[in-house]
């Protein structure tokens, strides 16, 4: 028995767990999901806004990841790969439900010209419901970008890897999404100073 196989499953790196799963290890994939399920669930719930839909999307994503593990090439972190599958599963559910997207804003729409960054949805239950409702009015691509960058703390570059688009596209989607959210959440601005989740200038997007 090799030193690798003797290690406890909990000590094995993500990429090795994925490789073990592809080779037939019956426990490797369960451990991988156990490690990352909470953040995968958060991405699904915040993107779809409906717990039942999010649960179904997460189940779809886990099944897709289980089947696609052998095609993982290691060009990104396993977490990025998993979150990409979750985002795609959410998009599939949106498409199947034929959700009518909101009218996109023009490329020149900028968040800074309208209002500060949206409040953290975890601060209070009422704010969370308002943000969830507001997010549902955004086109899916803007919603997903904001969830990854503003709520999950992804850098623009990492979010671009998850959504498989250029970083500039993520910046544009975030700016346009924030601009659209601002008037929907203006009453929270009047009650308190919104938190800047990203903590940087230029509309609050991480670099």
Automatic annotation (TrEMBL):
Keywords: DNA-binding, Sigma factor, Transcription, Transcription regulation
GO MF annotations in UniProt: DNA binding; sigma factor activity
Coiled coil: none
Annotated RNA polymerase sigma-70 region domain residues: 32-98
Transmembrane segments: none
UniProt keyword Transcription present: yes
Taxonomic superkingdom: Bacteria
UniProt cross-references to SUPFAM superfamilies, sorted A to Z: Sigma2 domain of RNA polymerase sigma factors, Sigma3 and sigma4 domains of RNA polymerase sigma factors
This protein's record includes keyword rRNA processing: no
Biological process according to GO: DNA-templated transcription initiation
InterPro entries: RNA_pol_sigma-70-like (IPR039425), RNA_pol_sigma-70_dom (IPR014284), RNA_pol_sigma70_r2 (IPR007627), RNA_pol_sigma70_r4_t2 (IPR013249), RNA_pol_sigma_r2 (IPR013325), RNA_pol_sigma_r3/r4-like (IPR013324), WH-like_DNA-bd_sf (IPR036388)
Pfam families per the UniProt record, alphabetical: Sigma70_r2, Sigma70_r4_2
Domain RNA polymerase sigma factor 70 region 4 type, residue spans: 130-181
Protein family (similarity comment): Belongs to the sigma-70 factor family. ECF subfamily.
Protein name as catalogued: RNA polymerase sigma-70 factor, ECF subfamily
Native organism: Actinomadura mexicana
């Amino acid at each position: 028995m090799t030193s690798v196989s003797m290690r406890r499953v909990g000590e094995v790196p993500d990429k090795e767990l994925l490789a073990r799963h592809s080779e037939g290890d019956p426990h490797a994939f369960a451990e991988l999901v156990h490690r990352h399920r909470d953040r995968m669930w958060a991405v699904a719930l915040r993107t779809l806004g409906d717990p039942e839909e999010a649960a179904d999307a997460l189940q779809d994503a886990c099944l897709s990841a289980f089947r696609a593990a052998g095609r993982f090439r290691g060009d990104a972190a396993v977490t990025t790969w998993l979150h990409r599958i979750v985002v795609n599963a959410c998009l599939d559910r949106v498409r199947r439900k034929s959700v009518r997207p909101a009218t996109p804003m023009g490329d020149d729409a900028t968040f800074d010209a309208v209002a500060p960054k949206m409040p953290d949805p975890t601060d209070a239950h009422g704010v969370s419901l308002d943000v969830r409702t507001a997010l549902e009015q955004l086109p899916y691509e803007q919603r997903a970008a904001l969830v990854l960058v503003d709520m999950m703390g992804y850098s623009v570059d990492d979010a671009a890897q998850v959504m498989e688009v250029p970083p500039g596209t993520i910046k544009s989607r975030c700016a346009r999404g924030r601009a659209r959210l601002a008037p929907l959440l203006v009453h929270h601005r009047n009650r308190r100073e919104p938190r800047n989740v990203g903590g940087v200038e230029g509309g609050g997007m991480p670099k």
